[in-house]
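Ticket opened by: R.M.
Priority: normal
Category: complex prediction / small molecule

The reporter submitted a protein together with flavin-adenine dinucleotide and asked that the result be attached to this ticket for the collaborator who will pick it up next week. Submitted input follows.
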Amino acid sequence: MKHYDLVIIGAGPSGYAAAMRAIDLKKKTLLIEKSTLGGAGITNGALSSKTLWELSRDMLAFRKNLDRYHLEPPKAVWKEIQVEVQNAVQERVHLLDSHLQELQNNPKYATYIDFIEGEASIISEHLVEIETLDERLAFETDYIIIATGSRPRFLPNIPIDEKYILTSDGIEQMEDFPESMVIVGAGVIGCEYATIFSGFGQTKVYLIDKGDSILPFEDADVVAVIEKNLEAQGVHIHRNSSLSRMERENGKVRYTLNFSDGHQETFEVDKALVSVGRVPNYEKIWKEAVPIKMGKRGVEDHDTNTSVKNIYAVGDITADINLVNVGELEGRYAVEKIYGSPKRKLVYENISTIMFLNPEVAGVGYNEKTAQAKGLNYKVVTTDYSTIARAVAKRNTQGFIKLLVTDDDEMQILGMRVVGEQASAAIQAVALLISMEKGIEELAECVHPHPSITEGIQESVRALLGKSILKSGLLKDKVNCYCYDCNKKERVMF
Ligand SMILES: Cc1cc2nc3c(=O)[nH]c(=O)nc-3n(C[C@H](O)[C@H](O)[C@H](O)COP(=O)(O)OP(=O)(O)OC[C@H]3O[C@@H](n4cnc5c(N)ncnc54)[C@H](O)[C@@H]3O)c2cc1C
Ligand SMILES: NC(=O)c1ccc[n+]([C@@H]2O[C@H](COP(=O)([O-])OP(=O)(O)OC[C@H]3O[C@@H](n4cnc5c(N)ncnc54)[C@H](O)[C@@H]3O)[C@@H](O)[C@H]2O)c1
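Result attached by the on-call engineer:
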């Protein structure tokens, strides 16, 4: 029986990254994928939804520009949008596919990588079986990395058929823009699709929110901007509502909501999207004899180690953050851990994220909610986009920068949120400083290009240090600094 150093199950972002790191270390590696290379990082996930978001954003901007010149906007055609999304997906899958083939044909790498299309399962600690289209294969291995990802969570009694009642796995296969759509779950996926469909301007979107605000993990000031824009685009948010029934009836979707004030109402729409979180793909991956422990939200791992010594788990299958960059980080880390000791610890504090909303929201580290939950005292500066020359030039000053630092002389950076145009471009310098456990002096003194959004970050830092150009608290809601005392639960402006 053929023997490998390492078998990796799943070629999404985490599995693929792990395989590439194993090649660097000259380990004989087998990568197995049962469906499409790139997993949810490409198909029905990150890349496809971001392509939709970009197209929707272009359409929104186009409509606004035409409006400026009193011209009638054209209608977006779903089939054309769909083709563009498929092109993006195929380009990316093709890139990975060609890359794998090149590796397998190149004498420098060929010894170290094999790729098999098929469904893998772990029979015992050192034995993996694969069912391909026409045969069943078995391989021995020293180590295994499970990178089988996640899938949409279903709700009991909601009959998802991926035609009328959809998840993110079915939404891109729709035949046309629906005239109306309800989205169940106002988290990241729900809010991104609400932004996308309201941006195209052909779908009346309803968003079901269990609580009194969407994106329940974000600070209220961030949420306020996003909610305002969604509503301005015609999105109706059903606040404090719980879904009691949803069913398909005469080609429509009928749903009934119970509101927290006691009343109940029934609505009818063309389509529904259920986006209430994801569940790990763990069923059938290992046999009962393999004692891998599962937690409520995924494989219980300790820095990528599972409860079985030679088996590791990375990416969405584990119970932490579900993101492409986190999956890749864990995949690479697991390989380095198996074959030595990684140079850096696996830390999640400096993970940067972007939520593709209107406007985009970039984040890294703590926000006020998470800092308060941790019992931290902190200082905050908020700087409005209207103080940033680049935003003024763009004629879009909606948004702000919010930076949190420790409430001591060092002012170590705890986290940042940027809501507004080019937010994503502004976040990385701060992510680096967090990972280096640095204070804010470095940012204050580094010269930023002009006009740029990052100048706003520099001014924010300078405000905390008491040396900004626009002084804190003088212009209402422009630049404000405050301390938060977790014991007293109070803010003090400075
Ligand atoms: C709509 C949507 C939008 C998203 N947007 C973003 C975003 O903007 N930014 C971001 O960072 N993240 C985003 N994410 C999250 C991101 O896609 C995931 O966190 C990431 O893809 C997880 O990578 P993974 O490799 O762990 O799992 P996956 O990408 O799920 O890949 C797992 C792979 O394993 C394969 N597999 C499963 N079982 C087996 C088996 N038995 N044998 C062989 N192969 C198997 C699957 O076919 C799949 O290809 C988004 C997700 C969704 C659904
Ligand atoms: N831009 C990005 O980085 C990006 C984009 C999309 C997805 N993702 C990843 O994918 C993951 C999954 O996204 P998601 O939006 O499905 O999950 P989520 O955890 O972000 O949001 C789920 C939402 O559904 C709500 N909910 C749960 N049960 C409900 C019910 N019965 N009725 C109504 N609402 C209910 C929750 O309160 C929550 O707001 C995210 O955690 C994220 O890591 C990231």
